[in-house]
Amino acid sequence: MKLADKVAIITGGGRGIGQAAAMEFVREGAAVIISDIAEHDEVNDTLSQIEVLGGKGMFVQTDVGDEPQVISLVNHTVETYGKVDILINCAGASDPAMLTNMTLDKWFKVINSHLTGSFLCTREVARHMKGQNHGTIIFVSSIAGSEGTIGQCNYGAAKGGMLGLMKSCAKELARYDINVNAVCPGVVKTTMTETIRGDEKFREATLNRILMGKFGTVETIAPMFRYLASDEGHYIHGQVINIDGGMFGL
Length: 250
Ligand SMILES: NC(=O)c1ccc[n+]([C@@H]2O[C@H](COP(=O)([O-])OP(=O)(O)OC[C@H]3O[C@@H](n4cnc5c(N)ncnc54)[C@H](O)[C@@H]3O)[C@@H](O)[C@H]2O)c1
Description:
Blueprint: E1 7-11, H1 16-27, E2 31-36, H2 41-52, E3 57-61, H3 67-81, E4 86-89, H4 104-132, E5 135-140, H5 144-147, H6 153-173, E6 178-185, H7 194-198, H8 200-209, H9 218-229, E7 240-243
Parallel strand pairs: 1-2, 1-4, 2-3, 4-5, 5-6, 6-7
Helix pairs in contact: 1-2, 1-9, 3-4, 4-6
The structure holds nicotinamide-adenine-dinucleotide.
């Protein structure tokens, strides 16, 4: 097992990409702390599956944009498992509107959940990881962070901000043997993209941009987290890794 005895916090682990990451990690022997703003039905399914696999895991309800809740999430993890080895910053919401209709509420909802949430979680786990002199931090950004996206300037800004945050953290944390990277999915079949994929015109236009001609699945993304968190992937540092079936920059 590649992650035996490791302890991983996965924000937004209640469903979708974060949930797939949690299962991937448990199969490799890690204890997982699934944190999410909501206790979706999938959370309980995940906890049951972890039990069936004989793995360790718990759910901690957390709004990653809320400083006291994030501090409590990390403290609770360290109190329960004695350490934290891996953080996956996967939580985040979308709230689309064209630029001229974008309200401050929509702006801050998306910026807080992705960008402020990643900052707070990274800062708190880094305080522990520095003492351990080892760790892995992964930001789940998006190709929208590099190329922007129509109708979601809040999301494009948040995801672009996460790339700058990742690079800055990579520069600060390398000396503590903490590898820090960003994984950028293209369009993956999850709840977040249901509306986009359900709209025939948008669906066709998007599929035409993907060289492989198909959307990603959570299983196409989660193994990269496992690799980056394992000893084999530890020397990968400060990178932006696009997983999009051939979409960005082609
Ligand atoms: N699905 C895609 O095509 C795609 C593409 C690029 C990037 N991403 C990113 O991948 C990550 C996971 O997305 P997904 O597709 O699995 O979406 P999802 O909506 O299924 O999962 C996101 C999870 O984050 C949680 N969340 C939202 N706001 C939160 C907050 N403030 N605090 C804690 N949890 C919060 C939600 O409850 C949900 O469980 C997101 O950061 C998303 O931006 C997704």
